[in-house]
Design goal:
Elements: H1 2-19, E1 26-32, E2 37-43, E3 46-51, H2 66-81, H3 90-95
Antiparallel strand pairs: 1-2, 2-3
Length: about 110
């Protein structure tokens, strides 16, 4: 009677392990730039994405602080985990309250 129970328990364990989302081994490294901060997404100890500037913003504007860079990098990792393209929009930056300057053309 207990033998089928253990077999069933073992089978349920195998199924739950195989259905879990695989860890994509992505880490965040905040980088210090001359005028602020950027980030890198590290995969298997190698640079996967190097983002020294705020994405979606024209020009080369850095993040004002490391927390804003980290917030944006976390969103990129979340998008990669959801198998979507890790593009960041201006609307997403605004919703995360990322500070940037809009450059005016003359």
């Amino acid at each position: 009677m207990t033998r089928p129970f253990w077999k069933l328990l073992f089978l349920i364990g195998l199924i739950s392990i195989s259905c879990q989302k695989k860890d994509n081994n992505l880490d965040i490294k905040i980088t210090k730039q001359t005028t602020g901060f950027g980030y890198q997404i590290i995969k298997n100890k190698k640079t996967f994405i190097n983002q020294p500037y705020i994405p979606a913003i024209p020009g080369e504007q850095t993040f004002k602080d490391s927390l804003q860079a980290r917030k944006t990098a976390e969103l990129v990792i979340k998008k990669i985990g959801n198998s979507s393209f890790p593009r960041i929009s201006v609307n997403e930056l605004d919703s995360m309250k990322i500070e940037y300057e809009i450059q005016k053309f003359q």
